[in-house]
Amino acid sequence: MEVLITGGAGCIGSDLAARLLREGHQVTVFDNLSSGKEEHIQNLLNNDRLKFNKGDLLDKKQIENACKNIDVVFHLAANSDIKYRPEDPTDEDLKLNTIATYNVLEAMRLNSVKKIVFTSSSAVYGEAEIIPTPEDCGLRPISLYAASKAACEAMISGFCYMFEMEGWIFRLANIISGKSRKKGKTVLSDFIEKLSTNRKELEILGDGKQRKSYLTVNDCIDGIMLAMKEPYKQVNVLNLGPEDSITVDEIAEIVASQMGLKDVKFKHTGGDRGWPGDVPRFLLDTTKIRKLGWKPRHTSREAIEIATKSLLDQVIQ
Amino acid sequence: MEVLITGGAGCIGSDLAARLLREGHQVTVFDNLSSGKEEHIQNLLNNDRLKFNKGDLLDKKQIENACKNIDVVFHLAANSDIKYRPEDPTDEDLKLNTIATYNVLEAMRLNSVKKIVFTSSSAVYGEAEIIPTPEDCGLRPISLYAASKAACEAMISGFCYMFEMEGWIFRLANIISGKSRKKGKTVLSDFIEKLSTNRKELEILGDGKQRKSYLTVNDCIDGIMLAMKEPYKQVNVLNLGPEDSITVDEIAEIVASQMGLKDVKFKHTGGDRGWPGDVPRFLLDTTKIRKLGWKPRHTSREAIEIATKSLLDQVIQ
């Protein structure tokens, strides 16, 4: 199959590209390298089944051309910097997520591409009343990022029903990678950076009791690959995450310990969340995807441990 | 209070403007008159508490200026032509609903306007599995129009939580009015128009068995006015519709009968729905708004009868 991966030079996208190449597919990576990095796909560039298309989803013509002869679009590109700061424009997520996704869908329609796989986020649920949260729970986004992901989901649904396309929407737990990105710092790179500068004290956003679940990129890609195999259904919405969660303080302890640091003083900025729009506690109900045969290999704690080790190995190099 | 009504020259907006004036408020009608009509607010223009602002929501500066000193925005403006035809652009709803709503929210944020009332649609549920459909049911839009309404809801939720605004989202049944609009023909004006030309035969989209519920504008406005009185809650999502529904064939019979026509032959275009993206059957669970004290005065049948009479009276004039 000919597949296009938007955001294909990102942390998930580049590993997905490698997996799809291994499975024999033709892969086009479409990325503007705003948060993705060319180095993430460097080792794939000599594979003649891989094409790198440096393009921007806000340029309709570019994505329209990129969709020619494509069978499946994995639409991963998004604003990865999910924290809104008072000085930020409020239309970043509207542009980079909502409008970009419209451009992808329209480019697909114009080229009769019939299948889209979309990486949504657990954030769309907001502070859910039901935890673990099942897919049919109403959405109540509490951030501009989450709102745009919900908007993308809605458009995908609309396009799939209107134009007989097939949509796969994965609502992801926090995906944790051994790769780092240009924009949108993760909790791990934040802690490693801070502890490299000050080995005695660590500033932790919020009260440290935020409890979230983390999934390795590999487990995430295993889930996404289901979309290649399952029989056709118009719109498929699936939670994708581990069955457990971990607190931010526990993550801090893992990072400090792996860095060989003892008695690090945690200094909490306070409040029940890390930033405005942060969902302080979530856990996904993954009954639906488990019934399709998916099972993560790692718990949240293991995912954090693996990614921390990988990030630290790179720092040391 | 100083209120701004976007789409204030529309079928609902103009009646809402009249009601808010009667209750003593300062009202600014913001409308680009693309589907609204100046004649709908003609009788209000000599009220010195009414201001008419002919403006376009896609012009950020215009809506930003219009939001100065406003206490509440009733955001009713939308693409009223919900049927997508193959020759139509696919970004009408994205622009006129999603991006326009972002512009409203951003204009409110910049002017510290803290309250938005939004007219969403029962269409956001798509073909719901639960009928009557409660608010916490997951959304699965099957049209570009419905997708954009769901996207607007998500953005309102995001803005309300991020910037401490209060949001009232009403998911409306089909609102039926004695007024007609420029764009986006309703079932009643379609039938009246056709039967005026051919008094013996009526073309009905679909199989005529589509079953929907209809609410008069007055009942709708009674519901919306709740938002002025209820105590503050960040985001309030409320279904608004009658407890019954009516088939398209039954509507055709009412119109024919009120036009004094007998033995009109119904010619169905066939299929279970009127157009691609049409939801053939819906009924809203309105337990939530009824608990707040709202109750419609009319059933779906009565709403259709009242609106048909009013429309026919205008034709005769």
Please give a structural write-up.
Two copies of one chain form a homodimer. Chain A is α/β, with parallel strands linked by helices. Chain A folds into two domains: 2-175 and 215-240, Rossmann fold; 178-212 and 244-282 and 298-316, UDP-galactose 4-epimerase, domain 1. Chain A has helices spanning 11-22, 60-66, 92-110, 144-163, 187-197, 217-229, 248-258, 287-291, 300-316, and strands at 2-6, 26-31, 50-54, 72-75, 115-121, 166-172, 174-176, 201-204, 211-212, 214-216, 235-240, 246-247, 265-268. Chain A has a seven-stranded parallel beta sheet with strand order 3-2-1-4-5-6-11, with helices on both faces. In chain A, strand 4 (72-75), helix 3 (92-110) and strand 5 (115-121) form a beta-alpha-beta unit. In chain A, helix 5 crosses helix 7. Chains A and B meet through helix 3 and helix 4 of A and helix 3 and helix 4 of B.
Write a concise synopsis of the structure shown.
Helices cover 36% and strands 18% of the residues of chain A. Chain A is of the alpha/beta class.
Radius of gyration of chain A: 19 Å
Extended strand count of chain A:
13
The CATH class label of the largest domain in chain A is: Alpha Beta
Q: What is the architecture of the largest domain in chain A at the second tier of CATH?
A: 3-Layer(aba) Sandwich
Per the CATH scheme, the topology name of the largest domain in chain A is: Rossmann fold
Main interface pair?
Answer: A-B, 39 and 39 residues
Strand count, sense and barrel status of the largest sheet of chain A are: 7 strands, parallel
**C-alpha end-to-end distance of chain A:** 37 Å
Proportion of residues in extended strands of chain A: 15-25%
Poorly predicted ranges of chain A? none
What is the multimeric organization of the chains shown? homodimer
Question: What structural class do you assign from the helix and strand content of chain A?
Answer: alpha/beta
Q: If you average the pLDDT of chain A, what whole number results?
A: 95
User: How many discrete domains of chain A?
Assistant: 2
The helicity of chain A comes to 25-40%
- What's the CATH H-level homologous superfamily of the largest domain in chain A? NAD(P)-binding Rossmann-like Domain
Number of helices of chain A: 9
Please provide the ordered H/E string of secondary-structure elements of chain A.
EHEEHEHEHEEHEEEHEEHEHH
Strand order of the largest sheet of chain A: 3-2-1-4-5-6-11
Q: What gross morphology of chain A would you assign?
A: globular
